Amino acid sequence: MTGFGRATVAREDFKVAVEVKTVNNRYLDIHLRLSQELSPLEMNIRKLISSRLSRGRVDLNISFERGGATTYEINRPLVAGYVNILREIQKEFNLAGDVDIASLTRLPGALTTARGGLDEESVAGIEQAVGEALDDLEKMRESEGAALTEEMRGRVAKIEAEVPVIENAAEGLADAYRQRLQKRIGELVNRGGGPTVELDAGRLAQEVAYLADRSDISEELVRLRSHLDQFRATLDTQGEVGKRLDFLLQELNREANTVLSKSTEVSIKDAGLAIKAEVEKLREQVQNVE
């Protein structure tokens, strides 16, 4: 689910600011932006995020500033490498001039901030800021989640409204099959203007029963109603429900496909297609649910 959170923790010796944002994703995908100094905390931060979130792409940025005067250290191997290569270039191309100190200090990585490592207070402050940013994120996601739940309830209601349409149309299928079959057979038998042939009522009834049995969708409708009830109940459940909702939508789509494959009645097909359209919209929304 999309969301944004931020938090700041300040102490006498440091200040840490954390920003975190999430967008929907089927799996948990964590992306961290940390300074090299904070890299030893990466695994702990990932575990902290994983303990709070289960799905979505997570982008988290940490800004860490120390108080007091800043001292620097020379990256001697790096500077030596620059000097050696510059002298080789000077010799190879017969160039004049000397290596400039000011230019060397501007080279990437030539000077690094002197650090004594992260003490316990700094680590605690960073983890506190991450936790508070996640709290802020969850508040926003809860508000958005409530609105999303209501929207999904509305789509479930639309699907439920199509079920009686299918049931009513299915009740008259046997009579419709009998009439169409009788008419078609009569047209074929009496083609050419010959004498009228009486149809065997028993045989016709057998064929109608066979077609009606093949097109019976009562079980599919029972399962469809059951899945809708489970979907609505799952929306009221606390905790991680996204995967269960995914599964129920797969089952709803399966039942709709079966109904469509078994019937040629226009009203049933229209209702089945309407159900599938709502299921697809629900699938997109469920991607936002943990």
Helix content: 55-70%
Number of DSSP strands? Answer: 6
Oligomer kind: single chain
Number of helices: 9
Q: What summary fits the major beta sheet?
A: 4 strands, mixed
Strand content: 5-15%
Shape annotation: elongated
Head-to-tail CA distance between termini: 8 Å
Low-confidence stretches: none
Number of domains in the coordinates?
3
The helix-and-strand class reads alpha+beta
Q: Specify Rg, calculated over alpha carbons.
A: 35 Å
Listing every helix as H and every strand as E from the N terminus to the C terminus, the arrangement reads EEEHEEHHEHHHHHH
Mean of pLDDT: 82
Strand arrangement, major sheet = 1-2-4-3
What order do the helices and strands come in, and which of them pair?
Blueprint: E1 3-10, E2 14-23, E3 28-33, H1 42-52, E4 56-66, E5 72-74, H2 76-92, H3 101-105, E6 111-113, H4 120-171, H5 173-189, H6 201-214, H7 218-235, H8 242-262, H9 266-286
Parallel strand pairs: 3-4
Antiparallel strand pairs: 1-2, 2-4, 5-6
Helix pairs in contact: 1-4, 4-7, 4-9, 5-6, 7-8, 8-9
Structure commentary:
This protein is of the alpha+beta class. It has three domains: 3-69 and 119-141, GHMP Kinase, N-terminal domain (Ribosomal Protein S5, domain 2); 72-112, no CATH class; 148-286, no CATH class. 61% of the residues lie in helices and 14% in strands. The protein contains nine helices and six strands; from the N terminus they run E-E-E-H-E-E-H-H-E-H-H-H-H-H-H. It has helices spanning 42-52, 76-92, 101-105, 120-171, 173-189, 201-214, 218-235, 242-262, 266-286, and strands spanning 3-10, 14-23, 28-33, 56-66, 72-74, 111-113. A four-stranded mixed β-sheet has the order 1-2-4-3. A two-stranded antiparallel ribbon has the order 5-6. Strand 1 (3-10) and strand 2 form a beta hairpin. Helix 4 packs antiparallel against helix 7 (218-235), helix 7 (218-235) packs antiparallel against helix 8 (242-262) and helix 8 packs antiparallel against helix 9 (266-286). It is elongated. It starts with a strand and ends with a helix.
